[in-house]
Amino acid sequence: MNKLESTSTRQIVDLANISPQRTFLASYPAKPDPQSSFYITKHHTQNADGSENHIISGVHLVLKKGHENGLWELLEDSRKSQDARNPKLKIRSLEIQCDTLEVHGQLKIPETNLTVYARKLVWGTAKASINSSPLPWAVKKAQNAAGQQKGENGAHGRHAGNIHLFIGKSEPADDQEQRLLACGGNGQDPGAGADGKDGESRQSRDGFEAAVKTPAISKAQVSFDTPAIYYTYGWYWSFIKGTSGTHTWGTDSFPTDGTDAVAPGKPGNAGNGGEIITTDKKLMDHSDNSPGKAGQKERDYRGGTAGRPLKSAKYAVKLYMDAFGTDNAGKDVAKLEGNHTTKSGTGAKALPADIIKGKSQSKHLDQAGLWIHPLQLQKVLEYARDLHLAGAVDDLPTLLADYEHTLSGEVPKSDLWNDNSAMQWARAASDIALILQRSRQHLDYYGHGAGFTPFLSLHGTVKLFEQEAERALHILLLTNWINVKARSVKEMSDILTEGIKNLNQNIDKGVEQIATAKEKITTHENVLESLRPQLENLAVELSDLENKLMD
């Protein structure tokens, strides 16, 4: 057999039953809950009028009645109406910064200026909404005129709070419900006025006819230059009173003036609708910020009509008899009180409100990145690190994809992001890119592959320390707060103990003083008792001396 025909034999190992995979055991902490209060930070201040300003940061904030985070009860104003004379505002401004804001139900925050920064806004129920419209007035109409006090002016309609939503997107996508309400308040109707009272009128005469028989008949025709509401007359022989007596006619009081009308109040002005600004254009179609209306204008009120006649007088008339009779007897007409004039009261015009209809405006902002807030980024990165540490790498792309895309673009032009905060934008972009890169490469949070034991690595230990430092600071601050509270309680307890001790000492001193006083009283009683016989003897001697002096 030559070289070409030679053969060699090799042993072939069967690998069919050997697995090419390796199994690693790994231990992770529990997956964090984005709704946990651990990620929620609340800050508030109080204004001089008692209203509050709130800033709330978190990852997934749920606004739902009865939710364990307590945000609904903190923010909602459950009142149905408010007093026009003493309106009160619960929350003046509210700013929310989070990854996801979820709203269940109709959240009423009357007159509150709301600003939201969120990647996603979720309407959790069919009728979920945010309403910053002011509360209606408890009494629709102001107080009416009383006596000469004019009707009260209606309260001005309150302005709705502004709603500024800087969000990446909202759900559900095919939403058709009304979600944002910021309608201006209506002005209160004014108090009614009162018409003037009509003056009292009197019967009047321009003259009269009189006759007397003596035995001939004397007649007289009397005319008054001013209508008479009262007169007296009698027949006379020259200057001697006749037999006909004195006659009177009318009422011995003049007609009266009409009184002035009492003016009604002025309607309250219309309130403005809140300003709605959002980065989500479809929300513009599901919002209502209609301005309010002014209160209803009152009617004009008339002055009272003057009593009739407008001009009048009182007269005393003397008629002179003729022995042979006459149809034109002599007469003297004298005015007792004359030329009294009555006038009508002045009417009161109703005035309209100064502002019949309020104003409102809405605006859509088409600029990327406006929904990102520095405090929001801080919370999201904190939660993303906890997810990575918990091994929930599949959740990271869903959480961070929108941030990665937006942060790779330009810094938005707004007051929030200026030259000083632009570095934070770039740093957040770098941190998120690093987290996503490691999750896509199936590396752990520290950048190591499967099987690596981080606690045996100095590098891993340092990394862990750096990431836990911030959380340790929170714990340190919480501990300090607890210590301060405990110290305050102890100091208060010491003060109360010292006060009780001093009180007991004062009580003991008081008891001693009472005992001493009792002893002194007993001593004085004994002295008085010993003096009693002496006083009785002196009384007897005094009586004897008195008897001797009498003798």
Structure description:
There is one protein chain. With 551 residues, the protein is an alpha/beta fold. Among the domains are: 197 residues, no CATH class; 101 residues, no CATH class; 59 residues, no CATH class. It is 27% helix and 23% strand. The protein has six helices and 17 strands. Strands 1, 2, 3, 4, 6, 8, 13 and 17 form an eight-stranded mixed beta sheet that branches. Strands 10, 11, 12, 15 and 16 form a five-stranded mixed beta sheet that branches. Strands 5-7-9-14 form a four-stranded parallel beta sheet, with no helix packed on it. α3 packs parallel to α5 and α4 packs antiparallel against α5. It starts with 40 loop residues before the first strand and ends with a helix.
Please supply descriptive tags for the structure shown above.
23% strand; alpha/beta
What multimeric state do the chains show? single chain
Structural class: alpha/beta
Based on Cα principal axes, name the global outline: flat
User: What letter string, H or E per element, gives the SSE order?
Assistant: EEEHEEEEEEEEEEHEEEEHHHH
* Low-confidence runs: 1-10
* CA-atom Rg in angstroms: 50 Å
What portion of residues is helical? 25-40%
Provide a count of the helices: 6
Let me know the average pLDDT. Answer: 87
Strand content: 15-25%
DSSP E strands, number: 17
Q: Could you give the distance between the termini?
A: 195 Å
The largest pleated sheet is described as: 8 strands, mixed
